[in-house]
Design a protein that fits this description.
The protein is an alpha/beta fold. It is built from ten helices and seven strands. The chain is globular and about 45 Å long.
Length: about 230
């Protein structure tokens, strides 16, 4: 079994889910008392969020790169960055290490293609929804990506940072997200990417008329497949 290097804390609410899913998947696959070999480096999200707001992505990339280097030194065989947004700096992180990084958007695109979908909606932070670093990764697989329009993007982003990252799950926010999903489906979305690792804390498949692609689950399970050599 390979050792998974997890860069977490962004937020720790979703990092807990990564740890749970990874270990449950290993147990399900191998049985008995098996659990994952993994190392977690959890950063202070307040520092990362300040750099995001300031547009200081190079500094944030250096912080995560240093974490990745520490994980490699500790024995990790590959890196999992436990967040969608911070894959914006994946190249900066990669420059600090000689082991692979398992990209969350690549793993997600693979699952979308397996369902033979042509168009998906994307929910996430405003950085993920509005910038090219994530959408382009999905689109290069021949998949069209739709994002919420106007004020809806601001509300989706606000819920993530002011509620979900703090473990605050509100029914009113769930209902708002469900309406956003409906609007995306009306525009042609055949599936919805939960492109922030906290959104799976708010939404379940029953909340959507089309398939949901929970990136936390997808990324964590792909990490297990890689760790087990599947």
């Amino acid at each position: 079994m390979k050792v998974i290097g997890l860069i977490g804390g962004m937020s720790w609410e979703s990092t807990v889910e990564y740890y749970r899913i990874i270990n449950e998947s290993v147990k399900q696959t191998l049985g008995g008392l098996h659990s994952a070999k993994c190392i977690l480096y959890s950063v202070d999200f307040a520092e990362i969020e300040r750099d995001q707001v300031a547009g200081n992505w190079k500094k944030a990339g250096h912080t995560l790169g240093a974490a990745a280097a520490a994980l490699q030194k500790a024995g990790a065989d590959f890196i999992v960055i436990c967040t969608n947004t911070m894959h914006k700096v994946v190249d900066d992180v990669a420059a600090h290490i000689s082991i692979p990084i398992l990209h969350i958007a690549e793993a997600t695109a693979t699952q979308i293609k397996e369902k033979d979908l042509q168009t998906v909606g994307l929910l996430g932070t405003k950085y993920t929804m509005e910038q090219d670093f994530y959408i382009s990764r999905i689109e290069r697989h021949g998949i069209d990506v739709l994002v919420p329009v106007g004020e809806a993007r601001d509300v989706v982003n606000k819920v993530i940072f002011e509620e979900l990252c703090l473990g605050d799950i509100q029914q009113s926010s769930r209902e708002y997200y469900m309406q956003v999903i409906k609007n995306l489906v009306d525009r042609g979305a055949e599936g919805i990417i939960l492109g922030c690792t906290e959104i799976g804390l708010l939404l379940e498949q029953e909340d959507s008329p089309v398939p949901l692609f929970d990136t936390t689950v997808i990324h964590a399970q792909e990490a297990v497949r890689k760790a087990l050599g599947e």
